[in-house]
Task: inverse folding
């Protein structure tokens, strides 16, 4: 590509030079010819004046005189008769009074003309000078063949052409240099644009201060913007794929979660309608099962609505400064009956008395409730569950819920806060979980500008930790 551009540029320069040299020839040739004729006229005039006092009397002597001065010499009387000529017999020559140069000389002026001789049939340049001596008077005419004039003009024209050509040499060298420079730059730009069309937005052009450099800089900016847009589109595409995958998983999980209780409700309802409603040993039992599955659907629906509002940013929070220990005590009091039914000791490790968080009290209550319910569910009877809080840095309060349950395998920890993810699916369903509690905890915590994590070892219990901000200016928007 670069070689082709260079060849085109050089061809253009060559055409320009040829046109320039041709123009020089057409312009200078008439000027050189005119200048030479003026110079020749002065030279022949001087020779004619030199012959005024040395004109031969014998016509035959004119031949030697013509050879001596290098031209044709003619002596013409004042009445136009030819008295002598270096190249023809004057007795055979017609009257020259009407010749243009002679007529002008007879009027006392120097005459000149370029024409074909009627005597010898050759084109001459004539110069006629009036003879100033009184006797015999007349006109002295000196002529040179036009071929000599043309040859001299060609020599002068060649000199001018050579000088012009030599003057063009630096220009040609500069043109070659700039043609190579421009072809390299243009070739790089073309290769760059080709790489852009192929999707390579990481390439960059070398910028400089000239116009091609400005073009290169603009193309680099365009490449950077295209790269940014492509990265953004790829990121958005990946995010959309992730969202679509989550949506599909969500639909599948919701369908699965709804199918079991709905099938149970439908089955027991049909059994009751088929006559079991009149069986004292089964009717109450079946109705209790229907009620339990209805409660499970109610909890699932409620959790789905809460999670959906949080993810869509439609959940309204009432942020305020809340005493940490009051939040802990309220949750412990509300969860105490559930713990007592399983014989689980629920302990409270209070934070410093002046500890506060900037949060929505209801949201914090739901976070703690979800964590405590899970801890109590998965802790064997007679175990311990501890809830507490402590400062974490200068602007955070760290809450924790710790149990003495079965623990969580390490491979499950990274997915624990995903929707509908369960470590032990059979046991979770048996305990009535919806699989959304920890996902709600994560989203509520993040909505407050905090974070949540879990530490757990199998057979040694789990510890769930989340943080909340102390001041308003660190709250997530």
Result:
């Amino acid at each position: 590509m670069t070689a082709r551009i260079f060849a085109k540029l050089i061809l253009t320069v060559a055409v320009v030079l040829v046109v320039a040299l041709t123009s020089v020839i057409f312009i200078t040739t008439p000027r050189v010819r005119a200048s030479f004729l003026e110079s020749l006229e002065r030279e022949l005039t001087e020779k004619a004046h030199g012959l005024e006092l040395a004109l031969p009397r014998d016509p035959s002597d004119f031949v030697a005189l013509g050879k001596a001065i290098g031209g044709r010499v003619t002596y013409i009387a004042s009445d136009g008769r030819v008295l002598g000529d270096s190249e023809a017999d004057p007795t055979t020559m017609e009257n020259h009074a009407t010749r243009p140069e002679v007529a002008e000389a007879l009027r006392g002026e120097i005459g000149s003309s370029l024409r074909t001789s009627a005597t010898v049939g050759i084109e001459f340049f004539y110069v006629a000078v009036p003879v100033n001596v009184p006797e015999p008077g007349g006109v002295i005419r000196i002529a040179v063949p036009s071929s000599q004039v043309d040859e001299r003009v060609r020599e002068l024209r060649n000199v001018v052409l050579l000088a012009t050509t030599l003057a063009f040499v630096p220009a040609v060298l500069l043109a070659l240099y700039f043609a190579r420079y421009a072809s390299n730059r243009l070739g790089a730009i073309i290769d760059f644009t080709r790489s852009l069309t192929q999707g390579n937005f990481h390439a960059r052009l070398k910028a400089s201060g000239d116009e091609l450099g400005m073009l290169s800089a603009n193309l680099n900016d365009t490449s950077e913007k295209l790269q940014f847009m492509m990265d953004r589109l790829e990121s958005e595409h990946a995010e959309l794929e992730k969202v679509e995958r989550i949506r599909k998983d969500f639909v599948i999980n919701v369908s699965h979660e709804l199918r079991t209780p709905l099938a149970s409700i439908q089955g027991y309802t049909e059994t009751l309608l088929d006559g079991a409603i009149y069986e004292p040993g089964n009717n109450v039992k079946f109705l209790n099962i229907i009620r339990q599955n209805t409660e499970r659907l109610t909890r699932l629906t409620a959790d789905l609505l809460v999670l959906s509002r949080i993810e869509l940013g439609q959940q309204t929070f009432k942020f305020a400064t809340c005493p940490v220990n009051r939040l802990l005590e309220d949750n412990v009091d509300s969860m105490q009956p559930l713990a007592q039914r399983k014989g689980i000791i629920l302990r409270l490790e209070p934070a410093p008395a002046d500890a506060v968080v900037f949060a929505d009290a209801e949201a914090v209550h739901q976070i703690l409730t979800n964590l405590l319910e899970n801890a109590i569910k998965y802790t064997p009877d007679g175990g311990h569950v501890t809830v507490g809080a402590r400062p974490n840095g200068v602007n955070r309060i760290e809450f924790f819920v710790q149990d003495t349950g079965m623990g969580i395998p390490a491979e499950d920890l990274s997915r624990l806060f995903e929707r509908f993810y369960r470590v032990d699916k059979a046991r979770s369903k048996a305990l009535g979980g919806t699989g959304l509690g920890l996902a709600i905890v994560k989203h509520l915590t993040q909505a407050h500008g905090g974070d949540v994590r879990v530490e757990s070892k199998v057979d040694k219990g789990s510890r769930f930790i989340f943080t909340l901000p102390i001041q308003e200016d660190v709250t997530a928007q």
Remarks:
- The chain has eleven helices and twelve strands.
